[in-house]
Amino acid sequence: MLHDPVLKEHLASCVSGSVLFDEPLDRYTSMGVGGPADALVFPRNREELLKLISFLRKENVPFLVFGKGTNLIVRDGGYRGVVVALQELNQLSWGARGEAEIIVRAEAGVPLAEIIQLSIKESLTGMEFCAGIPGSVGGAIRMNAGAFGGEIKDVVTEIVVLNERLELVTVSRKDLHFEYRRLDISDNAVIVSAEFALSPGKGELISAKISEIKSLRKRKHPLNLRNAGSIFRNPLNIPAGRLIEETGLKGTRRGDAMVSELHGNFIVNLGHARTADVIGLMEEIKCRVRDSRNVQLEAEVHIVGEDG
Ligand SMILES: Cc1cc2nc3c(=O)[nH]c(=O)nc-3n(C[C@H](O)[C@H](O)[C@H](O)COP(=O)(O)OP(=O)(O)OC[C@H]3O[C@@H](n4cnc5c(N)ncnc54)[C@H](O)[C@@H]3O)c2cc1C
Asked: What range defines the domain where residue 243 resides?
């Protein structure tokens, strides 16, 4: 798609950060799979992001926003278009609003782990449930990330979005429509930053909660192998992991992709898995669960790109 040298040159001139052509995405996704993107671009600030997205829209070049790639499966043929990586939009600040509220402002590329560290350092309570979720602020909002009874929707107060009309708009919480693992937002919109309302808390309690969550994750999740978190959304009445386990699928392999022995809703990469293996395994799980339990599983991970 991006063969024209003039187009490539223009693209590169939009940002001061890296522009990598034909860059394999398996290096960037937590699952460690995925073919090359025509281009992987790293804007360094919101002005560069605006310039880049305006250019891509004007030239009709498809683009994919990329946070930390922990909920993304890219097919083996890669992505025809530009992957816009937001990791360098990483400004984080905080301040008191009244006596009871601390407002944390984070650009989209800030890792959730950084807000967890800040919560420990500054004794802020409210986002402990995010401990161990390896995504970025933008990805967490897009996915309404959640765990241990909390969800991003409970703590976010507003976001800044680069919308379809190439305007940077602030949208307050009451106008954001969150669902289970999803924010209802246009596919072309880019979340640029977010504000979270936390509260001053007791340092020891916050640290203890975070340690407890992290050790629970260590026990329950296959963190020693590459994976993309929960593969399927939980159906209403029963966790997907339990259904998969009860269907006897733990340990099932396709190539180097395997249903984790530890947690049925994780597929792990044993070393050289291809996306075709991962997707094949997902199809097999869906068929087996549908046939044996009459439940239709739906993917939680986002699958993008072209077949190999
Ligand atoms: C070990 C492990 C444990 C996990 N545990 C949990 C958990 O407990 N709970 C949970 O909810 N998730 C969990 N996840 C999944 C994942 O970490 C979350 O969904 C996370 O919020 C995704 O963030 P990301 O930056 O990696 O997004 P990406 O994977 O980069 O992107 C996910 C989707 O969001 C879009 N996107 C990303 N950034 C933006 C942006 N700025 N603007 C618009 N769209 C954007 C992408 O285009 C893509 O469609 C886990 C994953 C792993 C690997």
From this structure: 226-304
